[in-house]
Amino acid sequence: MRTLHKRVLVTGGAGFLGSRLCGKLLEDHCEVLCVDNFYTATKDNISGFFTNPQFELMRHDVTFPLYLEVDEIYNLACPASPVHYQSDPVQTTKTSVHGAINMLGLAKRTKAKIFQASTSEVYGDPEHHPQHESYWGRVNPIGPRACYDEGKRCAETLFFDYHRQHHLRIKVARIFNTYGPGMQPHDGRVVSNFIVQALKNEPITLYGDGSQTRSFCYVDDMIDGFVRLMNSADTLTGPINLGNPDEFSMRELAEQVCSLTGSRSPLEHRPLPQDDPKQRQPDISLAREHLDWQPTVALEQGLRLTIDYFEQLMRRGLV
Fold this sequence. Notes:
By secondary structure, this protein is α/β, with parallel strands linked by helices. The protein contains nine helices and 13 strands. The chain has helices at about 15-25, 80-85, 90-110, 145-165, 190-200, 220-230, 250-260, 285-290, 300-315; strands at about 5-10, 30-35, 55-60, 70-75, 115-120, 170-175, 180, 205, 215, 215-220, 240, 245-250, 265-270. The strands form four sheets. A seven-stranded parallel β-sheet has the order 3-2-1-4-5-6-11, with helices on both faces. The chain has a two-stranded parallel sheet with strand order 7-10. β5, α4 and β6 (about 170-175) form a beta-alpha-beta unit. The longest helix is centred in the first third of the chain and has 22 residues, at about 90-110. The chain is globular.
């Protein structure tokens, strides 16, 4: 007998974004099946859900098929930070490509609506600024970042081919840099790196001259965008940019983190990694028009909340 509640599968559900999405779906009275192989995630992220009868956890690698019944699928499974996705690049590509094939096959069999967590990295080191969804990108297909960039590009291809060939209801979001409480202290992302270094009064690592830019979206805003896209009309497939259009240089971010933490950390320059994008800023016109969505949490406010989280981890000896 099927439940009256919507049954939602979240792959990568124990990760930074996945765990926050699971929490939001539980608040919305969904039955949530969280799938994760715990390659980069931790059970601490989802331990608060274990007593909720609407929550179920399955340890599983999405490169292998899944056989179950669901109404919706959020496919978030894939390491997202360079430190993690470059440590096993072949597995990273497999996770994006085989994972997409397996989840699309599940969606086809169950007639579920399926969401793909794509990335701004599909734009590569862009020649167009800000980046609009119509821009095809500038990606090095054989560089050290290609396992992630090209894996996500191939996953988008698969989603749209399944949509055209098998009439699947798909949603594709291109996620720009997201931050907030729940990030891992040593995941290699710039916000967590800077905050941990600042709290320890260690040198803050700037790559290149620090002039390269990013746009940072607070996690709650991002999750709201996910749910709005999934709940939108079936005719809205995406891809659609989700991110904060406010752009900051790496030096500006480092200085703001130092100011908010009262840190004495000096800035330390290192060579810019190969294929590291010089600019990253989303054009979110489509999200504003079709989802009535735009970020509401300013960078300073989000950084304060994130710094508080990392200070708590430090007090517990976890950083």
